[in-house]
Amino acid sequence: MGILAAVMVPHPPLIVPEIGRGEETKIQKTIDAYKKAARQIAAYGPETIVILSPHQIMYADYFHISPGKGAKGDFGNFRAGKVKFEVSYDTEFVEELCLLAGGRNLPAGTMGERDKKLDHGTMVPLYFIDQFCSEYQVVRVGLSGLPLTKHYELGECIKEAAKRLNRKTVIVASGDLSHRLKEDGPYGYREEGPAYDERIMEVMGTGNFSELFDFSEKFCDKAGECGHRSFTIMAGAFDQTEVRTEQLSYEGPFGVGYGVCMYERLGENPERNFRQQFEEKERQRLAEMRGKEDAYVKLARKTIEKYIISGRKLEVPEQLPEELCERRAGAFVSIKKDGQLRGCIGTIQPVQSCLAEEIIENAISASVRDPRFSPIEPEELEYLVISVDVLGETEKISSPEELDTKRYGVIVTKGRKRGLLLPNLEGIDTVEEQIAIAKKKAGIGEREEVELERFEVVRHY
User: Fold this and answer.
1) Strands 2-9 and 168-174
2) Distance between CA 256 and CA 26 in Å, rounded?
3) Beta partners for 74?
4) With contact defined as beta carbons under 8 Å apart, do 255 and 180 qualify?
5) What are phi and psi for residue 37, nearest 5 degrees?
6) Which of 421, 451, 415 is nearest to 436 (CA)?
7) Closest CA to 418 of 390, 436, 392, 444
8) pTM
9) What is the 3-state secondary structure (H, E, C) of 356-387?
10) Best label site of 58, 186, 380, 390, fewest CB within 10 Å?
11) DSSP string, 154-171
């Protein structure tokens, strides 16, 4: 037994006739595919259905698994309160899943529930499944802001839990595709929207789950998708497993992409260990990057490694480039892991005797004193990507028109409040975004007038 099958489905509430009131006929392909998938799910006779929903409780650094004996919900928020649901949770499965995640130091569990009601990302799939299937229990799993590899690993835990309990299990990966397919859609149009949908349907339609890791966070964000993490958890549940894949439908008439795919387990296949393959490639890539780091970044890395391992501060090494020992300048040390920021601390003006000391102090602060993150752990060191920005002189400007997000960083000042944002940051495309984020960092109101300064940096990798 264990994982028998899975389905990737969207969750537009209007697909429910009591909500759509005729509009649902405009996505008839999706309705037909949904019903076909629901019939196939029923044919497996699942004892447990694991539902992965982006509208379940979500935390930045934790996977929430719904606790308790069960939950209820209805479509009252969509003016169809008479359409109700009540599910029983598979408490034994939940307990086993939490134990397995804990054994891997994967942050997942039943703590932090804010709302027991079923979300529409759960209820829309159940609306169709319940037409053909009734004797099952549910496990509800939320997504997180953690890297895709962690989502995949949670899927591996789901697979192992189903296997250990000998549970006939089906997974429902609930998630719409891009919300930015049309100008008159709910979120307008961006070219990344249709590009995402074409690419994800190719990946999910062929079962080539290794490519899920190749979608950057920036690309997904611009595409306005909501299901990628659900799909990645589902893929993890088929780790080292051969699957039969069937793409049932795709359409996006309302400016949101709806894709339906069905998956059936065929047997074991050790070569489909996609997370391990990706992490090995990442280790090789990061090792190559470390070999190309310049003196500034090598200094920051040595500082971080020494402090994290021994708790001692690095002394300024001998034979550093002259500029590091004789120049004074403000500097920022930025640390990333899995493509996400892991720490960033710096100084606008120099406060140490030389640039080398500036980097050493800020590298330590970025690794253990950034209030947004927990201190870096020794096992993380080989996965860190480090950069050092050396700031030039600041100059006051009178208008945002004098800024350029690629060339200039910005400093905003309101009284004693001061916020800084470095230039050429991923995901910051406009001056308006740059100023808004700098204001937020300083605790300055969005509409408050501020003094502006700009500066250039030399970025070291």
Assistant:
1) parallel
2) 13
3) 84
4) yes
5) -65, -40
6) 421
7) 444
8) 0.88
9) HHHHHHHHHHHHHCCCCCCCCCHHHHHHEEEE
10) 186
11) HHHHHHHHHHHTT-EEEE
